Fold this protein.
Amino acid sequence: MANFKAFLKRKNIEFSVKRYGIDALSAMAQGLFASLLIGTIISTLGTQLKIEILNTIGSYAKAATGPAMAVSVALALKAPPLVLFSMVAVGISANELGGAGGPLAVLFVSIIASEFGKAVSKETKIDIIVTPFITIAAGVLLSVSCAPYIGKAASWVGNIIMWATEQQPFLMGILVSATVGIALTLPISSAAICAALSLTGLAGGAALAGCCAQMVGFAVMSFKENKWGGLLSQGIGTSMLQMGNIVKNPKIWIAPIVTSAITGPVATCIFKLKMNGAAIASGMGTCGLVGQIGVYTGWVNDIANGSKAAITAFDWIGLVMISFILPAVLTYIFGEISRKIGWIKENDLKLDV
């Protein structure tokens, strides 16, 4: 056992929730962003501006989704170069065979394939053959045997959430909004979760509401301490910057969470806000305005397939209210109440920005 532990340490193989559930998941979200999401945005611009080359660029970016995710996961696991490069083939197989649940299949398969590759890396004199062979063979075999079932399971869970949101938009609006919003601020990836579950429709709209409540909420609530730098870094960056302060004083999290529990059902019940663009955008909030672009992309797609007649003024009012105005106003109010009753003290929200 001691020798095995020493081997794992030498190979930098670490079985931990942080390594697989935080580092790998967050990296996978970046891979998704750098392929599917940015490709969708570019394609949307190409369609709207009638610039065909943008559609071409976007289509190639989207085609690289599987490899981008797999390489991102391997990089997070600190895989050596030959393993890293071999993950391209693994990503293609896992994403394609995983179907709608491709991102979750890629995460699972890439973790195992990367660790197998790391284990054999530089252990033989023909490393240039052995390492990529083991990495690719392990990944593709896992993809063939497991990815379809992982994809179906993820799709089933996502469909259940979306069905439940359609049936009970008020209760599920609260639950989805608060849960995904919390995930966005925690050091895990709300974007990857939404992508893995293919969370779109009303549920996607609720998820977007929760993320905006956290990002815009913290940005506005902490303006006294962090000024414009903090407003921008949290409002269009990430509310995860507050995680250290939350650990010190969890009560600072109450205002954004309560806000998300309000804006979620407002999104689902009043504005009927749907995310019919890329599922990953449901978990992005106002980060680079990706969530809002995703909603707009969905409107465009719905018009193209005939399920929506046109983008109305009410659509725009709903998107702006849910994304910016309600999170800012409500969290500011709840934040001021928290300050007055002593839950938030001076510099509790201070960032090093």
In short: The chain has two domains: 2-154, 168-340. DSSP finds 15 helices and no strands in the chain. The chain has a mean pLDDT of 91. The first helix runs from residue 2 to 10.
